[in-house]
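Entry:
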Amino acid sequence: MLKALLQLFSKYVHPFEKKADKFFRKVKSGSSRSRAHKKLEKLMQENLVILNLWMEKKYKNYVYLKKRVRRRMYEDVELMKKDFLDYEAMHKLNRSAVFEHFKKLGIEFPIHSENQIMYLATIMSYLRPGPRYAYQESANFGKLLKNPLKEKLIGDCNQIVTLYSFLYTLKYPIGDLQIKILPKHVCLHFRGIDIEATNGSFKKYTDYDDILPITELLTTNLLDVLDAEVQTAQIDPRTIVKRAQLAYLISSKRELVDRNLDIAYRNLGIRLMAENQFNSAIFYFEKLRDQKLIQNAYHNAAVYYIKRKNFSKARYFAKHSRNDDLMRACYMGEYSELSKKVRNIKNLEKAKSYKATYRKMLNLARKGGDDQAEASVRKILKQLGS
């Protein structure tokens, strides 16, 4: 009963979602890249479908990915796995035909990887565009997670490559695979051979940008455009930073992810400053090394605390803002508050009990550079015998 109640209130519908989320929450831009890639590869091997779908929910915030929807998707994936493995058992492909196809493409058939090649060819045959799969640009991953006996699977290049990789893990290590980055496109890559998942064929692409570890498939999915057909909820800037940090950590495309991370830091810092969380805002602005934003945050913080008569905090931020006028405003703001305590004192005897207040006012007036206020307090203190 207790377990059922906990599941009811949990945001997870599968234990692996929690496991994936734990990894994502621990990610920082300064984490070890090698350890992150190893952990990701292990998670991808264990359950790439749930890992990728949870990443879409967390970082793209598609509204439709509610618990009941994800639960049904995972059930459909189990049906898909069974259907595919039944298909594999019943459709033994002709090795000679695959060998001849490689020969026509000018690709050397990898004798020592024959089993993997034939298995990839079976995945191709199963997911070739037609009754089970259709290509759609910028489709979200959920459109692939259906029961193929009832609905057509729909996906773009990133998503169908992800599904190929998932099916590959049912028999072989995902580390065997890589991705090849082409102009505005991505395909699967296996030991010198390209697998064009969108049309189910082996290829030999010569015009390409890079060949990357399979873990960077997640980066391409992270940075891919949103599915315009699907509603998204607002994403908290902190989540956007986490997404950018993950991309920064696992991607070798430094220029792209550096810029992405800087934008995320800037936007989060501005959001935090608007929420009066100044120390946190300064933390992210310092990561940017943007002195203008840092000084602006210190300035706004000082003004905020002056208005709230928290003069110790106001002075701290004003000092770091390097703005002398703002520092004087802190001193004179506190002077003004103290003067309210003594303004109704009409006799000398009562005034003597406020000597400490007058001395503090004198010090504040001197630091604030207000000669008139300083002279006025000195006159009072002289009358009090100080």
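Residues 13-223 form one domain.
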